[in-house]
Write a structure and sequence with these properties.
Blueprint lengths: L18 E3 L4 E3 L1 H9 L8 E3 L10 E2 L4 E2 L2 E3 L4 E3 L1 H6 L6 E3 H104 L6 H30 L6
Antiparallel strand pairs: 1-2, 1-3, 4-5, 6-7, 6-8
Helix pairs in contact: 3-4
Length: 241
């Protein structure tokens, strides 16, 4: 096998080996290259040319220590010339370079197709993603609006309850003030009756004393009824919690 460091023609060993035969894996000078391509068996060989050739190391058949030159179409494997005769005699073959180019083109086509499909799907996803995001924003906005509406309803309900309570409180305070005034009046009358009673202590006439006491008792009974009414009305008012 030709080495990358060799710069001489491996055929005449005199000229510079600027041409590398990919099938023979040898370096050729320009003259030997022309002669090689004129030969019937090697006229279709391909060359790499140039002053800085760096031939690729090719795989070879480890069983026969030969380069792979064919590709078995039935077994899907590269074979050397000995394998082609011994193991793949009746099989269909293609030159390994031709087969490689075909597979290379097929792989490229598959990759390109997959790339196009993926790019198409990505392109389709963008508007769907945008639509989804827009829908989410609409739902969020609707939730916020519903929240504001519920908050307004709660605020109105709370305000109504507070106003109702304040109105009742105002009426109750007025009632309490009125009851307080009535009780004060009743207290004043009770004081008067107490004074009347004290004044009777100096009456010696029993008949006159009895009449005076009956008069005081009648006033006390009337005053007691009014006081009980006021106290009963006071107890019926709602108590603060």
């Amino acid at each position: 096998m030709a080495q990358a460091a060799s710069k001489e023609c491996e055929i005449c060993v005199s000229g510079p080996g600027h041409n590398y035969c990919e099938q023979c894996e040898q370096l050729f000078c320009d003259g030997c290259k022309i002669s090689h391509l004129r030969t019937k068996m090697t006229k279709n060989h391909t060359f790499l040319s140039g002053p800085n050739i760096n031939p690729e190391v090719k795989l070879y058949c480890k069983e026969h220590d030969e380069n792979f030159i064919y590709y078995c179409m039935e077994c899907n494997t590269p074979v050397c010339k000995i394998c082609a005769i011994k193991k793949h005699k009746s099989h269909d073959f293609a030159e390994i370079k031709e087969s490689t180019e075909g597979i290379k083109a097929e792989v490229k086509m598959v990759i390109d197709m997959k790339m196009r499909n993926l790019q198409s799907k990505i392109a389709d996803m963008r508007p769907r993603s945008n639509t989804y995001q827009a829908d989410v924003q609409k739902v969020i906005q609707a939730i916020k609006e519903e929240g504001r509406h519920l908050k307004e309803m709660i605020d109105k309900k709370v305000e109504g309850l507070i106003n109702t309570l304040k109105e009742k409180d105002t009426r109750n305070v007025q009632t309490l003030q009125s009851v307080g005034n009535e009780l004060k009046t009743a207290l004043d009358k009770a004081k008067e009756q107490q004074k009347f009673y004290q004044d009777t202590q100096g009456i010696k006439d029993t008949t006159k004393l009895l009449q005076k006491l009956k008069q005081i008792k009648s006033q006390i009974d009337q005053n007691e009824e009014n006081t009980e009414f006021l106290l009963c009305h006071q107890s019926s008012m709602p108590k603060k919690q």
